[in-house]
Known about the structure:
The chain is an alpha/beta fold and 320 residues long. The protein has helices spanning 2-31, 38-45, 85-91, 121-133, 146-157, 181-186, 189-193, 201-209, 220-230, 235-243, 275-283, 299-302, 304-315; strands at 50-55, 58-65, 69-74, 95-100, 139-144, 162-168, 261-266, 288-292.
Amino acid sequence: MGHYTNEVIMKLKRILPCFITLFILLNCFSSCSHTKSIEYVNEKYTTPTSKFMELGQMNVHYRDEGAGKPIVMVHGLGGFLQMWDAWAEDFSTDHRVIRMDLPMSGLTGPLPEIPDEASIDLFVDFLHGFLMKLDVKEFDLVGNSLGGWVAWAYAAKYPEHVNRLVLIDAAGLFEVKDGPMVVKLMRGPFGKIYLKSGVPKWVVALFYRGAYGDNKQLTKERVTRFYEILNREGNFRAMYDQANLDIHIEKDQVNTISVPTLILWGEADKWIDVKFGYEFEERISGSQLITYPGLGHAPMEEDPVKTAKITREFLEQSIE
């Protein structure tokens, strides 16, 4: 018995330094500040085409590029308008491309107040007010992830404004609490650890690794951009608040969508399974689903050429 006890003590002595080191590192990561100033992030991530619109109590960051038929692009949770860069470059050659940082994201930043009871209409009505202020009243609408949810909910609520709808790995068919692991982590103790300090870059890299089918897509440049924009003053708190909103799901609204709809999905999506792509296709009459082997949660970034080509073909079809 004594020999067994001594053996256990020796093992504990060997692993104890590891636990102490881990504790020290976590304590440092949670206490060291990773927060970036609004001025620094805004200066680094705006371009000559960047604009800001006062809308309610928000100062909305957006880009309005090209000329022709308007196409509106909406990003997802933890994202920003730059995630559409490749598509914007392609489509702005013959379209008017409008993309914005949603409330609680990017350079638009946090909302002044978080509603007690949340609805996807928080984002849908924001989008409607934003577009009406731009006097854009007829357009094609594209959304990815949370932005896909916003897009289909907008098309259900304001069908008279949407010519065609493109959903890319869209959310909205499951409760937020049942969402991808990244959301579940944000809803647990993990998110609270970094509310004051901001998020270390290595955590950001782990955080977004699941967004891409091929880890090589998460380049150093992308990690740095995620890290700096997510840590823009107030942004991580805003993302935490978004993940903890219990938005009521109204799946039956999907069945009411009447505009022509294209659904794109990465078969290697670890955040929102491709099975939901098939459910969207089943629920939206006349819709078409195209899946991509090897692509993850952001097909428009992972293979912008192939996904833009099929989207362009869809948008150019005549509406009967």
